[in-house]
Every structure is written in structure tokens, then in C-alpha cells.
Amino acid sequence: MNPEKRHVLLLWMLVCSGMTEAIEPFSTSIAVGMAAALTGFLASYQNIFYYFNECCRPEWISFNKTGLEVDLESKLFGQHIGSRIILKALTGFMSNDNPKKPLVLSLHGHTGTGKNFVSKLIADNIYKEGMDSSFVHVFTSELHFPHSSKLDTYKSQLQQWIKGNVTNCERSMFIFDEMDKMQPGLIDSIKPYLDYYDKLDGISYRKAIFIFLSNAGGESITQIALDFWRAARDREEIELKDLETLLSLSVFNNKNSGLWHTSLIDKNLVDFFVPFLPLEYRHVVQCAMAAMKAKGLRPDKNVADQVARDVNYFPKSERVFSVKGCKTIENKLHYYT
Ligand SMILES: Nc1ncnc2c1ncn2[C@@H]1O[C@H](COP(=O)(O)OP(=O)(O)OP(=O)(O)O)[C@@H](O)[C@H]1O
Ligand SMILES: [Mg+2]
Q1: Ligand number, closest to the Cα atom of 180
Q2: Lowest-confidence range among 25-29, 66-70, 257-261?
Q3: Distance, CA 84 to ligand 1 centroid (Å)?
Q4: Contact, 307 vs 329, CB < 8 A?
Q5: What does the radius of gyration of the chain's CA atoms come to, in whole angstroms?
Q6: What is the DSSP string of 218-237?
Q7: Domain boundaries along the sequence of the chain
């Protein structure tokens, strides 16, 4: 029996079994023993409490680099650039005990290419509770900031949310979904938190992670992927440098990107612009195989091919990329299995 359990048991015996009444006279050694048991209990109680209740401690929050690497390798299809940047960015950031600023990633790409999916993989490999962790916060523009007339209210709410959550746990993760539906200017309200400040009002934001998700820039990414395809060049030859500048520029200049003319880009506060490539037929097949496996079915290549054949592709003439990426594959499987 480990010492913690022994302390708890001892105290339980003393308090709950009526032993205290039986011991007469009350000797000093018993008093000392009880005090030790009580101290032990309080210490163990705290540990037991931490064991069952998620809290901002390494027991609940620790980066599993190998786990993320394996997940990206085996679960995320067709995103060689995205996988590489994300692994590099998180490994660097999480292994630094004293980062100069929070990590800010901006994920861009066509619908259904894995932006939310990758955010989940990141959360799964940092927080024991994954996306269910109370330290992972998702903001969706249409849900949390629906009215354009309330910009000022949203700005201060957003600041309060971030401040409150980082005060509660410095290793908090914030995911801003549908950035392209966010009003221009709103995201600028959190700029101070993303910047190189040691502390703001006594709070350090430097260990937090911010992830922005959007379709903005997706067209430029698709264009490049299509150019490579037309030139019969391997998709894996596409490099970040082919896309990064183009991406940050197109996002900065797009009024509907949520990052339009934002000082976050001006001031280089976004650490990585991560392009998500549009998915091809073979990736849809992989998604279908993975979905069957996730449902507990034996992956069947014929079924996966059937699913992938029934998906729409663009451009219309060449049918290269899946219109919805892998987005509806899981639901489509119902019709085929
Ligand atoms: N590259 C991928 N590899 C593996 N599975 C994927 C990939 N892309 C999408 N999927 C599957 O499709 C589902 C939907 O993808 P996801 O929600 O991540 O798309 P998204 O990029 O966020 O799209 P949107 O821009 O429409 O929000 C995922 O839960 C996952 O099952
Ligand atoms: Mg999404």
C-alpha cells in the first residue's frame, strides 16, 4: 500500500471506527500519531483531489511530442506542410520553460481539410482531457460574436475571458474558429496578450496557445496546389515558402478574413501561418478507411473507393480536389456500410 493510502486508512480507522473512544487515556504518542495522520491525510487529500479533478498541473497538462507526431503521421492525411510546422512549432514552444510570447498559429485552408481536426490532435496531446479540458476554450464567431453592433462589448468581453482564463491557468489554449466571419478589428483587442510582454497587470500570457482557424487564403493555397498538379509535380514538393508570404498577404488584405489589416500581422505576432492543402481522391479514400476503423468496422477499400467516387471534385473539368474535403465522409459511410 502506498504511503498516501496508508495515511488515509489510518485516519479513517481512527476517526470512523470509533477507535478514538476506545483509547484511554489519551497518550501523547497517539496524539502525535493522529496529528501525523491528519497532516498526511490533508496532503493526500489534496493529491487525491488533483487526481480526480482536472487542474492546472503537469498531471493534467503535459506535452506528448511522440503522441502528436504519431497522430499527425497516422491520422492527418495530405497535409505534409501543416504536419511539419505544427509539430515543430509545438515542440519548440512546449519545451521552452520561459517563452518570450504565447504561441500563435493561424491555420488556413479550404473547407474539410482538417483545421479543426488538427486542433483536436494538439489538444489531445497536451491536455489529458483533450478538447474537453477546462483549459481549452473555443470561440466561434457566429456563436460568440454574432452582432456587428456590439463590437465594443465583444472586445471587452474577449479581453476579460482571456485574462480570466489565463489567470486561472497559464497553460490555456484558445481556439478561434471561423475567423473569417469575425468582424474586422475584434481580434486586435487581444493583441497585448499575444505580444512580447513579460507580464500584463501581473499576469503572464507567455505560456498560452492561440489558434486561429479560417478558410481565408484557401483560394491562393488551392491555386498553388493546382499549379503543381497541372505541372505534374508531386504535391509533397510544395513547400511552406511557396505559400507563407502569399498567405499572410492575402489574409491581411482580405476584408473578410478576420485578420484584415490587423496589427497582429503587422507586428509579426502570428508565429506561423499554416496552409492546409485541398484534399484529393486518395485522401478521401484514406478518410473513409479511417472513419470505418473509428466505427469499429473492418476498413474495406472497395467501400472507401465507392465513397470517394461519389464525392464532388473541383475544378469541374479536371476533378482534382474534393469540394468538401473529408467533411461529410463519416456521415456518408452510413449509406455504404
Ligand atoms: N486532412 C485530413 N486528414 C484526416 N481527416 C480529415 C482531414 N481533413 C478533414 N478530416 C476529417 O473531416 C472532418 C472535418 O474536418 P475539419 O472539421 O477539421 O475541417 P475544417 O478544415 O475545419 O473545415 P471548415 O473550414 O469547413 O471548418 C474531421 O473531423 C476529420 O474526421
Ligand atoms: Mg473548421
Answers
A1: 1
A2: 25-29
A3: 17
A4: yes
A5: 26
A6: HHHHHHHHHHHHHTT--GGG
A7: 3-52, 65-276, 281-335
Three-state secondary-structure class, residue 239: coil
Give the pLDDT of residue 183. Answer: 85
Mean pLDDT of 99-109: 95
Between 97 and 16, residue with greater pLDDT: 97
Q: Is the peptide bond before 184 cis (omega within 30 degrees of 0)?
A: no
Dihedral sign computed on CA atoms, order 173, 177, 180, 185: negative
Nearest ligand 1 atom, CA 120? 18
Is the distance from CB of 305 to CB of 282 less than 8 angstroms? no
> What's the mean per-residue pLDDT of the chain?
87
Q: Look at ligand 1, atom 24, and give the residue with the nearest C-alpha.
A: 111
The whole-angstrom separation of Cα 127 and Cα 171 is: 10
Residue 106, φ and ψ in degrees, nearest 5: -120, 115
pLDDT at position 7:
47
Which cell numbers hold the place of 114? 482538417
Distance 111 CA to ligand 2 centre (A): 7
Instruction: Specify the CATH number of the domain 65-276.
Output: 3.40.50.300
The whole-model pTM stands at 0.86
182 Cβ contact list (under 8 Å, min separation 6): 141, 145, 176, 258
Query: How many angstroms separate the CA atoms of 38 and 236, rounded?
Result: 62
Confidence band, pLDDT 50/70/90 cuts, at residue 280: very high
pLDDT at position 9: 42
**Beta bridge partners of residue 274, listed in sequence order:** 107
Testing ligand 1's pocket by substitution, the residue of 105, 107, 116, 176 carrying the most ligand atoms inside 8 A of its CB is: 116
Which residue, by CA, sits nearest to atom 18 of ligand 1?
114
